[in-house]
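Tokens in:
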């Protein structure tokens, strides 16, 4: 039975604070709002920006622009006599803070996916909330007087126009042009650029043209990461309105046409809440509260239109389809082939969004080139990069999960010629030295200067984990792809013999070459430039977890038990044995130091999904959800309501990297629902 949207309780996280609470914990928790186009708004729960990515409007604009910071800050204040009582704040490079009343913040809430702030400023209680309408590059920030007499309210927008991950240095005076007509205000940063449209809803108050600048806005996280961290913020003027009880006023900022902006803010917020209810209602009933409910809503933030590739959308619609993709992580990742295929089941199939799963599979199938799926689409570019050996095989896995759920033979038949071509190209050999070794039917991949597996950290010319040769998970994925091709060939009444034979050869070679009988686990890479690599890493997990395991069954328990004893943490698996001399437990320091630790011990949450799959094969009938219970508390850390990209490898397991990562959310949600479906109490 499916629950009606109206029967669902709001999904809410609440963060109350006291006036004497320190500011640092508030700066370490971040909110994120997205718009289904890859654009977003984000900041800390106290309102101070700590990253170059923090801002109220970061639209995903057509190539070559990509995600562009357009509204980095709003200076919001109550005017009491001759005083300004600010709601938000900024840290400045001289060590000072922009004068503010941030201590008046009494509670921050994330309700559905709408951040809500409540301030008590002297005699006034103000509620502020923010949303982005779906499929619009628009933000609404609403202010409502909940208690106290009417009060004059001032909000000054600071504007910008830079790639969201671009340099912070820009001309001291932006050459933007401000135009005004009938309460419509437009800012053009330079001729031909998309215009930023600003206004109040309802049409109340006035706009005062008065340039201002904040010199030395400091982003402390960027400083810690070793990037430029000081920016000059520009404002052309400010809005003035009177706040009265029961009459909220909203500022909007947008790149959309004016006709799309004629909505009362309450209607906009109501529509977003209703959309979130429907997103949750489509998911299984077991996901309608608690951790999985939050993750269903977090999952929604990654499934997007390929907004910067307008031609792709036009082509898809011309043939009756819809283009869809998956943003790998916020704030700085674009759509990556590997992350998309690993995440597809958790983000779409586990949440009742099979039609979007199909659209994603078809979208990526159009980009298969010489047997390779794209590794990633660079920011603001139409042409993908292909330096990956595993993304292509994860494509088979994603299609299998889709077909098992939907039974959609039509889409399978559409994709099979592409899949057969992929197998042919790997047998014959394709780019980056990727080829099947005819001697053992295993896949080898080696190309100087390129990182080809998911362990892809690179600093300048240093590839931290090159893993050249025959990596263990590539063989597991290759074998799984061959078995799937044999299975699908039988399904459509074609001969599976060729794929069966290759799979049997690969399996025999794998079990003869990779198994370390004295250690009870598998080598990480064989036949590399320096020989075999016996280090204990989690990559062998997939030799057990996939639908068609390549590892002999009698060895499964040994592998799972070793991984559980030495790599498993409350937030996923370490990427290297703590006993290894190259083990790095923390992700901090310079960029080189961080890249050097990225896959040398740090914990990756996405691996927990396949660990649970393998663990349930070895220990059937046991409740796997206790393996995931730490993530419920993590919803209140880093990116609130979501799951981070990585964690330190030792207690307290500090979250690091992206505050919201697609495959982290997808695999934890998938694993939790699998445990629930197994009938665990």
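Residues out:
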């Amino acid at each position: 039975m499916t629950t009606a949207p109206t029967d669902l309780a709001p999904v809410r996280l609440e963060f109350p604070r006291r006036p004497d609470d320190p500011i640092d914990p508030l700066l370490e928790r971040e909110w994120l709002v997205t718009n289904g186009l890859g654009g977003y708004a984000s900041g800390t729960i106290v309102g101070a920006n700590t990253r170059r990515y923090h801002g109220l409007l970061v639209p995903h604009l057509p190539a070559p622009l990509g995600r562009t910071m357009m509204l980095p800050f709003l200076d919001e204040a109550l005017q009491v006599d001759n005083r300004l009582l600010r709601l938000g704040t900024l840290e400045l490079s001289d060590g000072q803070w922009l004068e503010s009343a941030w201590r008046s913040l009494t509670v921050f809430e994330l309700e559905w996916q709408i951040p809500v702030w409540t301030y008590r400023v002297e005699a006034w209680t103000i509620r502020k909330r923010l949303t982005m309408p779906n499929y619009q590059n628009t933000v609404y920030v609403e202010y409502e007087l909940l208690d106290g007499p009417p009060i004059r309210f001032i909000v000054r927008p600071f504007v910008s126009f830079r790639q969201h991950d671009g340099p912070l240095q820009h001309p001291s005076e932006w050459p933007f042009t401000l135009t005004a007509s009938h309460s419509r205000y437009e800012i053009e940063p330079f001729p031909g650029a998309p215009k930023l449209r600003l206004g109040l809803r309802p049409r109340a108050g006035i706009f005062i043209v008065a340039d201002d600048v904040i010199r030395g806005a400091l982003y402390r996280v960027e400083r810690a990461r070793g990037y430029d961290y000081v920016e000059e913020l520009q404002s052309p003027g400010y809005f003035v309105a009177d706040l009265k009880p029961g009459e909220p006023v909203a500022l909007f900022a947008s790149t959309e046409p004016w006709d799309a902006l004629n909505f009362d803010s309450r209607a906009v917020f109501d529509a977003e809440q209703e959309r979130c209810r429907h997103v949750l209602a489509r998911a299984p009933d077991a996901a309608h509260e608690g951790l999985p409910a939050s993750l269903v809503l977090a999952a929604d933030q990654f499934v997007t239109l390929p907004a910067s590739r307008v031609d792709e959308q036009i082509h898809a619609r011309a043939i009756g389809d819809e283009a869809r993709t998956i943003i790998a992580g916020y704030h700085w990742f674009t759509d990556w082939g590997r992350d998309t295929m690993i995440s597809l089941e958790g983000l779409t199939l586990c949440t009742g969004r099979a039609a979007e799963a199909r659209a994603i599979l078809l979208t990526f199938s159009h980009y298969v080139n010489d047997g390779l799926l794209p590794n990633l689409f660079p920011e603001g570019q139409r042409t993908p990069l292909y330096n990956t050996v595993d993304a292509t095989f994860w494509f088979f896995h994603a299609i299998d999960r889709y077909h098992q759920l939907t039974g959609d033979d039509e889409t399978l038949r559409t994709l099979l010629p592409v899949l057969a071509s992929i197998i042919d190209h790997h047998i014959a050999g394709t780019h980056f030295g990727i080829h099947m070794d005819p001697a053992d039917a295993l896949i080898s991949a080696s190309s100087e200067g390129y990182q080809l597996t998911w362990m892809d950290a690179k600093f300048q010319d240093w590839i931290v984990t090159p893993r050249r040769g025959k990596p263990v998970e590539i063989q597991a994925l290759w074998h799984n792809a061959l078995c799937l091709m044999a299975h699908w060939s039988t399904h459509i009444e074609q001969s599976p013999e060729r794929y069966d034979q290759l799979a049997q050869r690969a399996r025999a070679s794998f079990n003869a070459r990779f198994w370390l009988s004295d250690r009870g686990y598998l080598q990480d890479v064989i036949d590399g430039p320096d020989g075999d690599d016996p280090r204990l890493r989690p990559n062998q997990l997939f030799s057990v977890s996939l639908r068609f395991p390549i590892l002999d069954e009698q060895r499964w328990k040994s592998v799972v038990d070793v991984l559980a004893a030495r790599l498993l943490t409350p937030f996923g698996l370490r990427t290297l044995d703590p006993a290894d001399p190259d083990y790095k437990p923390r992700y901090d320091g310079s960029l080189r130091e961080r890249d050097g630790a990225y896959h040398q011990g740090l914990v990756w949450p996405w691996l927990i999904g396949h660990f649970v799959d393998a663990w349930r094969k070895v220990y059937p009938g046991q409740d796997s959800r206790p393996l995931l219970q730490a993530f419920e508390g993590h919803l209140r850390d880093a990116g609130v309501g979501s799951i981070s990209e990585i964690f330190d490898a030792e207690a307290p397991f500090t979250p690091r990297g992206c505050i919201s990562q697609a495959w982290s959310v997808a695999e934890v949600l998938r694993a939790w629902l699998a445990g629930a479906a197994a009938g665990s109490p």
